[in-house]
Structure formats: C-alpha cells, structure tokens
Amino acid sequence: MHGSTAAPLVRVTVEDGIARVMLDRPARHNSLVPALMDALNEALADLRRSDLTALVLAGAGRSFSTGGDVAAFAAVPRGERRAYAQTLVGGLNRAILALLDMPCPVIACVHGPVTGGSLGLVLAADLVAMAEGAFVAPYYVEVGFAPDGGWTAMLPARIGEAQARAIQLLNRHVTAAEAVALGIATVACPPEAIDSVVDGWTAALQAKAGTAVRATRALLMPPERRAAIAAGLEREREHFLRLIDEEAVEAGMRWFLDRSSRP
C-alpha cells in the first residue's frame, strides 16, 4: 500500500509503519457523502490488516471536514432522503467504530473546521493536534438534522453532560484552545507547526514498546464501552432518519445553503 491511492476521495500512504489517511474532497471542505465514507471504510479495513505503529487522519484543503454535505442532501428528492441518510450515517458510524477498533493509536490532525458528524472521526482518535483558528461546531439545531457522529454518543462522556448540552443546544463554536481545555483536543498549535507536532507524536510512538502500546489502547476501550458507543451511534442514526423528511429540515437546509452562498 506504500504510496498508493486507496480511492478517489481518500488518499492513503504508509511509510515506516505510519499510515496517513487524507480525506480528499477539498472543494467541498471534505464534507461527507456516501462515496467518501465507502472509500474511508475500505481504507480502514485494509489498514487494520497491516502492522502499524500509528494512523494519522487529516483533511485536504482548508477544512478537516464539515460533516454531511448539505447540498448533496438537498439534491436528493425529499421522499428518497431517508435511504440516502441511512447510507451516509451508517457509513459514518462504521468508520468511527473502525477507528476505535484499530490496534494502533489514531492521531487526528485538525488543521481547519470540524462541523457536524465529522466530529466523530476526531473523537475516535487517541491524540488530536488542532491548529489555532480551527474550531468545532454542531449546527444541528440550525439546519434541523438530529445529531450524529457521536455528538450525543461520545461527546458527553468526554467533556461532561452540561458542556455537551450547552454547545449543541446553543450551537456554540468551540475554539482550539477551548477544545484542549475540554479534552476534545490534545494540543492547540500554530497552523504551521501542526505537522511537526504530529511527526513528534509518531516518532515518540515508534520508540515505544509496540505490544504495550497496543495493549494500552485495547484496555482503554473495553468491550462494554465500545458496545455503549455503538448503541449510542445507532440511536443517533435512528433519530436522524426520523427527522430527515421533516419540513424543519427542508427549511434549515435552504437557510444553510443560502448563508453558505453569500460572499
């Protein structure tokens, strides 16, 4: 797999035991569509069979990922959106669980915004480097979608229920510094330093006892915790499907797309 391209929307390279997985849909801010999720899940399945020291997940362009592609949702006829959403959110849930199941540590390199369900890809990482200027935001109460990507299944356990409620109900933007304080990110750094931070982590992991690193990661995600997360993600998917054809979602998507199209 060294130097290979796993799929059109995801680039994968492996060198010296370090896998680098790049979401590669920069013109759409790496927003999530079924084809991207299929490519990511295929890449993660291949990488799980490899003997890796670490997996680094990043995004091309200005954003890490802005969650589900609202324009793609809006382009699907209203009566067909449930099937589309089932495919997309189901694929996202599989990717989150696949990252949690990786034997090696997962590092998220967050150089730009993380919105909507793409937060789950960050929450599944062991170490998160976040560039100053990047932020995390939900947008669900604005657009009308039900939360997905672990906003309810994973975030409250990470940062506390009160903070998770306030961020989501008020659609608060979480800065890189606040993400570190809350425990979403490991470190905030200048954008030009983020690659050096990640490279420092991968070098440190290469110097550790691999068997102990893998055992530590496995013990930090015992079967009962993994099962609880999987159940929470499934609840999110069910609620997402319930709301997808509601008029509030139709209006919310129009508002979001109109806002996004302004200069």
From TrEMBL:
One family name in Pfam for this protein: ECH_1
UniProt-listed CDD domains: crotonase-like
Protein name in the entry: Enoyl-CoA hydratase/isomerase family protein
Organism taxonomic ancestry: Bacteria, Pseudomonadati, Pseudomonadota, Alphaproteobacteria, Hyphomicrobiales
